[in-house]
Amino acid sequence: MNSPSFSLLALLIPWILTLALLPACLSASQNLSTIERDTTLISLSKNNTKVSQGREAYNAFCLPCHGPENIEIDSPSNLFDEKWYQHSGPSGIEKSIREGVIEKGMPAWGEMIPEEQIEALIAYLLSFQTTFHKSNE
Ligand code: HEC
Fold first, then answer.
1. Sign of the C-alpha dihedral, residues 70, 76, 80, 82?
2. In angstroms, what is the span from residue 65 Cα to ligand 1's centroid?
3. Confidence bin at 50 (pLDDT 50/70/90)
4. Distance from Cα 77 to the centre of ligand 1, integer Å
5. Closest residue (by CA) to atom 36 of ligand 1?
6. Maximal CA-CA distance, the chain
7. What predicted TM-score, i.e. pTM, was given to this entire model?
8. 102-116 residue pLDDT tens
């Protein structure tokens, strides 16, 4: 059993295993970082200072298109109900805000306003999401 092809196989097996398992490992760590990010964002939404900074930023930048807090229509523009048409979950909402929905006319805010305001905006919007708060209590 000391043929050259056997030792070649012995060399290749660890590589094959690594390549086969790599995608699974990467996606597991990505899920973990999404969960961590969600937890951070939910805790920001319980910080009153952040939330009121977010309300100010919302009134300045978002209100013209998305409407007031008491908007009661069932539409993708309503950011105060529990229904999400783009990405959902705290980090999904973050993604929509940062990257925009360019083809529909929603700007990518991540490139336009300071990081602190982005986080405050997410905190503000999440403060209306009762399901996140319940599941986190
Ligand atoms: C020029 C108009 C406009 C402005 C200003 C604007 N948006 Fe949007 N926004 C849109 C449009 C259009 C969509 C896509 C709606 C759809 O899915 O059809 C959208 C979608 C979103 C979504 C995803 C909604 C969902 O249901 O998944 C979020 C979150 C969002 N906007 C946040 C914001 C925030 C925060 C601001 C202020 C910083 C803002 N938007 C400012 C037009 C705008």
1. positive
2. 7
3. very high
4. 6
5. 62
6. 77
7. 0.84
8. 999 999 999 999 999
Domains in the chain, number: 1
Q: Which residues are CB-contacts of 78 (< 8 A; sequence separation ≥ 6)?
A: 66, 67, 71, 72
Residue 112 domain boundaries: 4-136
DSSP three-state, residue 75: coil
In percent, the amount of the chain with pLDDT more than 90 equals 68
What confidence tens digit (pLDDT) does each residue in 64-112 have?
999 999 998 999 899 999 999 999 999 999 999 999 999 999 999 999 9
> How close is the Cα of 86 to the center of ligand 1, in Å?
9
CB 104 less than 6 A from any atom of ligand 1: yes
Say which CATH number the domain at 8 has: 1.10.760.10
Ligand 1 atom nearest to 113, measured from its CA: 38
User: 44 CA distance to ligand 1 centroid (A)?
Assistant: 20
**Is the CB of residue 65 below 6 angstroms from any atom belonging to ligand 1?**
yes
What is the rounded distance in angstroms from the CA atom of residue 69 to the CA atom of residue 128? 9
